[in-house]
Amino acid sequence: MYDAYEALPILEKLPLQIESIAAYDEHLLVGTQQGHLLMYSVLQGASNGGSAESSLSSRCEVHLLRSNKYFAKKPIQQLAVVPEHQILISLSDYLVSVHDLTVFNFPVITSLNKSKGATCFSLDRQTSLTGEISVAVRLCVVVKKKLQLFYWKNREFRELGPDLSVSDTPRTIGWCRETLCLGFKGEYCLLKLEGEQRDLFPTGKQPEPLVCALQGDKFALGRDEQTIMIDIDGNPCTKYTLTWSERPILLVEDSPYILGVLTSCIEIRAAEPRLLVQRLELPKAKYMTSVISKNGQIYVASPSHVWCLHLVPVHLQLPRLLEDKHFQLAIQLANLSNEPQDIRSQQVQHIQSLFAFNLFQKHNFDESLQLFFKLATDPSYVIGLFPDLLPVEFRKKVEYPEAVPVLQGRDLDLAVLALIKYLTEVRNDLMSQNVKTGTNIMDVGSSLKLRRQLLEIVDTTLLKCYLLTNDALVASLLRLRDNHCHLAESERALKRHHKHAELIILYQTRGLHRKALELLRKHATSSEDFGSPLAHHDRTVQYLQHLGSEHTDLIFDFSSWVIQSHPEDGLKIFIEDLPEVEELPRAKVYDFLYKNHRSLALPYLEHVVYEWQDSNALFHNALAVLYKDKILRLEKQLQEDNNDPAIKCEYQDSKAKLRSFLEISRHCSPEAILVQFPYDCLFEERAILLGKVGRHEQALSIYTNILKDLPAAVDYCNICYQSNSPANKEVYFYLLKLLLRPDDAVKIPGLAYPTEEPHQRQPDIERALETLDRFPSRLDPVKTLQILPASIPLSELKRFLQRSLESFASQRRELQLLRGLLYAEHLQVHEQRIECQNQKVVITESNICHVCKKRFGNQSAFVRCSSGEIVHFSCQEKLI
């Protein structure tokens, strides 16, 4: 216990018996059993140099201001003051009256005749802050089993509503907002003004009830030696009840204390925390009241004495409270201090910080860290409470009020979980730029207050906490684009916990790709890491695929290592359908593969051309050449391996791919490819290339003279023939010419043509006639007849000639029809012109151009449109 109040005798051995008291400002009102009303002034004067702990008697002056011995004929049972309206409300002879405080003898303003038979009353004061500050007063009077409600207006109490009926006569009553708390003999209940009633609980062994209205819309109800606090809905406000030494007679709140009048003494207690603060021995104390709108001054009265209880100055109470670790009570008192606002705020925050530290000592980790967050305490101060989390250089700068508890086992786990929640809130606060400014317990250096360094400390500590509690969250933290984990500190922590996969993520987010890849290579080739997710090259491939074009050289360095052991997986680094892979410089990739891993150059270009639809002629030419090189290599292997079936199958497949590519590719350069093709093989492929550059005679001579494949030559003609193209419409004539005059074939220098005797190169009349029969419409009959041998019977040419004549006749008919249609259109236009020329156009001053909306002048040139509209000559273009 300690001294929270000092008791000063104000009135001693009063010849009249005190029945009731009330107080406001510096005034004390005393009602007596004889019906006298006494009004005293209690003035607090300056002390004569005495210490703060000296008696208050030297600092207070008590004077009788006025009295009225005829105030009432019967004992004054209850008094209440409303200083804002300068009225005094009294209950005497079971009648409620209202008196004027401003007049010497307290004359009666009005008596509530309806209240005859009243046993007690209660006031409800409501302060309005709209406009001028005003106080609305409501009055509830208990008359037997009725509750009469009034409100004060125009110097009189008016009825608020109909009377409320209850089951019994209330012995005491309290009023908060729209709720009345009634104390009956043996029980309590709540009554809403609209009539809803809720029974609460019995009064206990003693039937007399005790009701006290508290700040914050609460009630304190007595139950034997206990006081139960409830809200206006009847729900408990505190976890525990307030327990007194004996049953109190009367309760008065003087925040943060509650004072109780006991038969033997006055007890002063705190509700939060539950604490007996002080006992005052005041003989036969029976009445007690607080001063309206004034904290820290209480009047206590016995039938013949009155004492004034003054709150001991806050700055004298705080050291004792802090020493006893009653921080919650100290915070409430500090808020009541008379110090300037800024000093009071600093003092309160200091106590709250001590309270948060004390909560941590008691292992209330969540509550402690939430309070630290609310106070905007430097995160490094909070992190320093935990072992091995704060870097040594920062930990040395932090000091604590007492020894930091050593956390182990389950306590450490719970503390770290609370720290994770705290750090997450701090991080969100810092990232949103809402950095609170508060007075920290310890200044750990201005550098720590920089947002970047704070985020570094917070994120690094979060990483360490996740490693201790839930390491699955480590990767998520490191993958955050805005993570600020300290590189060296995080690297040491991850290595200490053998979190190599997470260490790679750390390197990756910091752009240390070479270190990450070196670590991947180390674990992929280590036999000790068998079974680890890093034990194979898959992670390396994925990592390289996401690096992007700015790290091309690094990709080449580490892809070689993968390709040497797993070529197919190494190729995935360059052909996966990912944005980063597609953006790689394809020419550089091809050059790298061609020079270092040539076997992968072909599949890479196939993916570039077929999957990515790249139209670059460089890649198309290179792909054709690679197909050619592969075919030649396989052909050589076939000769060495005596026609191995697998090699033969691959050889045929490669040739089919080359032919298909040459036929469909529109972006390759045939001339550039031809110079790289051999002269002793790949004749069909050469023919396709010759056809692309319009050298059809040379291409067809390959089919007829070298390959001896007339169906293939016919197919070639079918593909290349275009009737509207001068270069391509003669392909069938070239074929016919090669069949009829093989000696006139246009040969390619250097190409390996078969050596034949002159008698072996005879005209192939049969196949020539067959060609004439199949494609008569695609051959020019004049040119054809010029090269046909005279020895061919005319009957053999009958069908060809008929088809040719029919084709010419059809073309003539089409031309004649077209001529007729054109001539008819010409006549129609001619008639329309004559009709228009014969029409007269009259232009007057009222005519307006439909385009520019202006009139036609004397010198205006105009045009008559087909629709009949007349416009300026210069405006006709705007109609198009």
TrEMBL record:
UniProt subcellular location: Endomembrane system
Positions of CHCR repeats: 574-744
Name the record gives this protein: CNH domain-containing protein
Gene Ontology annotations of biological process type: autophagy; endosomal vesicle fusion; intracellular protein transport
GO terms for cellular component: cytoplasm; endomembrane system; membrane
UniProt xrefs under Pfam families: CNH, Vps39_1, zf-Vps39_C
Annotated transmembrane regions: none
Presence of the UniProt keyword Membrane in the record: yes
Residue span(s) of domain CNH: 15-295
PROSITE patterns: CHCR, CNH
Family: Belongs to the VAM6/VPS39 family.
Keywords: Membrane
Superkingdom classification of source: Eukaryota
Metal-binding recorded as keyword: no
Membrane topology label: Peripheral membrane protein
